[in-house]
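Researcher: Next sequence.
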Amino acid sequence: MNLFDVYSLWNIEPVRAKGCRVWDRDGVEYLDFYGGHAVISIGHSHPVYVKAIQDQAVKIGFYSNSVINSLQTELAEKLGEQSGYPDYSLFLCNSGAEANENALKLASFHTGKKRIIAFSGSFHGRTSGAVAITDNPSIKSPFNTGHEVTFVPLNDTDKILRELEKGDVAAVIAEGIQGVAGIFVPENGFMQQLEKACHEHRTVLILDEIQSGYGRTGRFFAHQHAGIRPDIITLAKGMGNGFPIGGVLISPEFEAKKGMLGTTFGGNHLACAAAIAVLDVMKGEALVENASQAGNYLQDELSKLNGIKEIRGRGLMLGIDPAPEYSDIRDKLLFKSHIFTGGAKNNVMRLLPPLSVKKEEIDIFLKETKKLLEV
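Model: Next structure:
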């Protein structure tokens, strides 16, 4: 049997990782400034994280959600405290796409409506509902196109208001920062007006913080820079530092009913142990604060380099828009400098290093980038 060929792969196989570094099967060391799509939050193979998973695997790795699992309660309490949402409820699942599917379902249950507003350039996942609200027709099958979805430009208050005034919108979903689109940050004023308009029109506001959350922007969630409180928040990626887990934070206004949501693997013992370890390390090592400080330093130093048209983002979620003659900089960084970075639309380079990244590691990245921009 062969693998179903859906990914373009670099001819590199990482086999070991520690902190902000990975090593391939030939022993070549790489600096990781992408964290596997923003998944690695506290650093590869953190000893607290590794021990938590090992210890839990010895006790019990899985049982169904038909019995009590106190690890879920511990995770919910710690997440509520650190995120600033202690009064919200937590539904645990397995991935970001699954979190968004459940968020959309909750919004429709709550409002009795089914139309969704999403934003141009959005990416919310590849499952049926999540891909329907993703602005990329090439990854939608005919099966996915039956959902009622309207796309509007980001930061366009007038168009949002005109759609909400029609009275048939179940939810508006926005990314805390648009990642795949090229790191576009919603304006604070726009987010504040959006929150107000959603409340006025009894529409659920969903913040997709799957990539932009978990401390990456220097706040626990990116939307907190705007001072708003959405009705539903979806999360995954950095939540498990590589262990598959997702979650939905749900406002107290939503009434839970038995069977409304469900999952086999969501919130299993191993996933909870991993996620608790992530929160413990984030708090103990002040990684949200480090993301803010390291991100500011990285952005300031990048702004001094020639060959960069624009730098967008917050904290350790940055997009670099290189001049056209440097459109191949990501490949050169990878194959010449041995530094992983991410890509986005229009040759934008995404930087999503672990929140634990050190100044000396940032300096290596800056030195190598400067060298390549001067060629």
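Model: The chain has a mean pLDDT of 97. The radius of gyration is 20 Å.
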